[in-house]
C-alpha cells in the first residue's frame, strides 16, 4: 500500500467529502450492505477513518495512516496499524473482510488479495468495492487523476482485472453489484453486474 502520509494530511478533507456527498455515500453503502454475511467476525482492510465500517457494523480494521486510524478508533473500531500487503493479522481469524476503493493505492494487488485469503476462514467471504475504470466515470477519473492530490498516483482497475486477480488468489466470485452513474449528490440505483456504475462491488468466497 502506498505511504499513509498522503492520507495523514487529508483526513479532514476525506471526511468532509463524505459529509457533503452523503447521498453518494448512502448509495455505496446500499451496494455493499446486501453482500455482507448476516453474522460472523469481520474486518475492513484500509478502514480509513471508519466511515464504512462504522455504518456497516464492522468492528475491526487495518489502516496504515495513524491519523485516520485515530478517527476510526473514536468511532468504536478496533484498529491495527498495517498495510494490505502485509496484514498484521493471524491466519484464518475472520469470517469476512471488506476492502473499499483501496486497490487503486496498492503496490501489489495480488499480494494483498493473497493476504486477505490467508486471514479468512475456509469459505470466508471477501467483499471488495472499487472504482471500475471500465465505465464512463471510471475513464473520467483516470483521465483527470493528475488534477486531484488524492488520486494522482492511483492506478484504477477494471472489473476484469479485479475478477482475474480474485480467481488467481483462491476466490470464487458469487455476486456483482454497481452504483454511482453520475457525481450528482442524489440517491443512485444499485444494479447487478458491471459496466455502468463506477462504484463496483464483488462478493467472493475463499476456496483454498
Radius of gyration: 16 Å
Helix and strand pattern: HHHEHEHEEHEHHEEE
Shape, principal axes of CA atoms: globular
Low-confidence stretches: 1-6
Residues in helices, as a percent range = 25-40%
Oligomer kind:
single chain
The total of beta strands comes to: 8
In percent terms, what proportion of residues is strand?
15-25%
Instruction: Give a quick account of the main beta sheet: strands, pairing sense, barrel closure.
Output: 8 strands, mixed
- N/C terminus separation: 24 Å
Instruction: Give, in spatial order, the strands making up the sheet with the most strands.
Output: 3-2-1-4-5-8-6-7
Total helices: the number is: 8
Q: Which class best fits the helix and strand makeup?
A: alpha/beta
Report mean pLDDT, rounded to a whole number. 93
Describe the protein.
This protein is an alpha/beta fold. It has 8 helices and 8 strands; from the N terminus they run αααβαβαββαβααβββ. Strands 3-2-1-4-5-8-6-7 form an 8-stranded mixed sheet, with helices on both faces. 43% of the residues are buried. The model is unreliable at 1-6 (pLDDT under 50).
Structure summarized in a few sentences:
With 208 residues, the chain is an alpha/beta fold. The chain has helices at 5-9, 11-20, 22-32, 51-56, 66-74, 109-119, 136-144, 159-168, and strands at residues 42-45, 60-63, 78-81, 94-100, 120-131, 171-179, 191-192, 199-206. It has eight helices and eight strands; from the N terminus they run H-H-H-E-H-E-H-E-E-H-E-H-H-E-E-E.
